[in-house]
Amino acid sequence: METLLANPAFETYAFCSAILAFKMLFSAIYAGTRRSKYQGFVNQEDATVFGPSGATALPQDPPEVAHALRIQRNDIENIPIFFAVGLLFVLTGASPWGAWFFCWTYTLARIAHTFFYTNHMQPHRAVAFVVGSTAIALMALRVFWTTL
User: Fold this and answer.
1) Section 69-74 average pLDDT
2) What are the angstrom distances between the C-alpha of 92 and each of 6, 118, 145?
């Protein structure tokens, strides 16, 4: 492990991964706060414990809750790809500069994507998604070519 921590490329990857893990937690907390604020409980036990007296479960999520859940699902669908590809990118000999550039590009793009998604800002959200996806694709291509 000390060898990995001495590698500046791995250090960048690890730091960005930690930021993205916190960002995923933020998305989950955000979804939970929307559910509480809008009393959007779909499970009766949640309505009973967290809702006002006499609250009942709803047949479907209110729009504000559904929106927050889409943000969370988007993270769950995209960030683990960075965890895997970014790690392979670093382990196959990425330069410190390359790791810094691609890991930070992806991390900042995901943070921007969530900000734009939360605030209903298109086409900014789509641009942030494309920037992050491009960073992942280029890292994956480098892993592919390195391992041929």
Assistant:
1) 97
2) 15, 36, 10
